[in-house]
Amino acid sequence: MSRLRRPGAIARPPTTGPRASADAADATRRHDPRLTVRALCLVLTGMAAALLVWGAQAVQAVYEARETRVAARTPVPAAPGTRPVAWWNQGDDSWRERVFSVVRVEPAVPSAPPPPGLPRWPEPGEAFVSPALLGLMPPAATRYGELAGTVAREGLADSGELFVYVRPPSGLRVQGYGTTLGISGFGAPGPATDPYFVSQSFDRPRSDLHALLACQLGLPVAVLLIVAARLGARQRDRRPAAYAIGAGRSGHARIALGECVRPLGAGALLAGVPLTALTLTGVRLPLTGYPVAAADLAPLRWQFPLALAGAWAILCLLFAALRPRVRPPGSGRPRAARSRAARSLPSAWPGVLCLTGGLAVVSGAATGQATGTRLFVLGAALVLAGLPPLLGRAAARACARLTVRGTGDAARLAGGRWAAARPAVFARACAALVVMLGPAAQALVMVTDLTDAARNATVLGRRLDDRLLEVRSAPADARAHARFVAALAPGDRVLRVVPGGDASGTGGPPVLVGDCGDLAALGALRSCPRERAVPAHEVYRQRTPRTEALRWMGFGPVHVRAAGSRAGSPATATAPQGPFVVLTSGPEGRERAERAALATLPLPHVAVPGDDDVVGGRARARQADWVLLLAAAGFLLLALTGAAGLLHAFLDGADALRPPAGYAGDVRFHLRVAWWAMGVPMVCALGLATVFTGLLAGVNLAFLSPSGGSPLGLLGGGLAVALAVCAAATVGGGLLAARCTHRWGKRGD
């Protein structure tokens, strides 16, 4: 066999000199997978920046459109001395712990324009209901009278608002009461500083959403850009080092801009196109279910591309400013050499932070109340700040312990030693789970926690099961009261709360009046007080949910007195009257009482005792969905950032696998190395991060927020996403290392 055909021989003369060095450098750059990782990181940065810009502009546009429609339907009070064109009164109702506006309207002149969103004024006994309320509450089609139609989008703050326009039936009027407005039309000159409508009582200001966007999306964008600028800045390209002698700051800036312009532009374009399409179709946000109409996003069709171009330019400039400047060897000030013992000694600040934060967490949990909550939040922040470095060290040590045995496996030995020498890499990789999911879990527990009053009212409401109602109304005559009682079912029991004290009705607690049979429906009686009013605790043998409900009805402790006839009958109608207490006989009792009150009483209001506390607590708890929505996006971005840094660090040492790869000869060797170098340490680190984060949330749930939502779903989902991302990075690292590592062969020696 000739020398030219022998395996391993070179068939052409070797190239020497500068051309050979340039060719080798170009080939290395073309096949270096670290450049691909950096480019993907820049693409992800552009996509995240596009999402941040779109979110900020969408919040602004949606709120402006909402304020415009709300201002258009806000009534304008008639000037003193002028005749109103219509009468307007706002009430409220609730359904499944959600409160909404019930606006009663009545035209005073035939030519009065109807409210925005209505094609005409409702006839007596008719109602216009928002589409969202009809979908959420089927009884709304009949509760408020005959359904005349739905409220158009122009009359609603958004398409998901719960809203009702109703006109009382014949015989009942809107005018003549203290809460009724005589109006000259609709359309306030500007948006109100405070919520004017009950259905908007728990809406958050736009500044809250902007703050959430800045924390949950702005932070990941900044981290992505910094990581992309620092990834392999001194190894990935030799041109800055070669030009360092003759090139100034402008030369370095042009080099950095050339590296980031196309990846950042590609990422902005990939995310910008579908986001722009949403301005044409609208979108319903996940988790929250909030509908964003395409008409509200119309300004973004030209504003978003311009803002995205500006954000792309700013990101490019920031990348050029953040990229470290590569100096020639020997330049700069000489640094004092550190001893080997000092280099091997780990920093103590993470442990100090965690210990201090742990003491603050325990103290806050033991203290309780507002002071304990603040102390707990401070301690949790300190623990979460010091936890990632400790997790990185624990993962590195665990991997070193796992690879002590089985040294005959070259992949296990190489991967374990690589992981044991780089705890900081795993600290940065698992920081996403700690930095984003840790505060999100605490926010979920705290926001969904109910106040003491709301918790007690919730328990009471479950026991009452809508079978005890409080019915209030504007002042009415005895005939209206009698008609209301007659409209109830035969099995329903009716009591009445009347002012107590002397003949003038002052100087004593309110008195619950009813016949002995109706009073006994609240609980077992010791005796039936017929002659005088007696405190409730002396009348009933024991406390029951129904007797306890009397304390939640807004009139405080009551006395009890038996009447000779049923409450609301003509025999008792001449006495000073107050709210009704209705004990329904079946599951449909509340709906029947609502219809009876709307048909017979002026401006009625039907509620379950303690409903106001429950509605407020649940509205606050629903805000956690917005935190989770933005935290999910931010967590995914940070998890991808950590995976990119981990993958880049692994590929930095991939060239060291040349000799053993020459003996292994297949891709499975590189996959096993990646598993022991990245997979095993990250499983340990992420598992420990989830345990510690869940432990903090558990302390909060057990001592400070006993009725808060469980964070297990959030932590479990975050751990699953983080493991999936790390698994993809592990497989990708093994495949890229196998493909791009130059194998050392034994031929031609």
UniProtKB/TrEMBL annotation:
Region Disordered, as annotated, extends over 1-30
Q: Which UniProt keywords apply?
A: Membrane, Transmembrane, Transmembrane helix
Which chain regions cross the lipid bilayer? 35-56, 209-229, 264-282, 302-322, 343-366, 372-391, 626-651, 673-702, 714-738
Name of the protein described by the UniProt record: Permease
Species of origin reads Streptomyces lavendofoliae
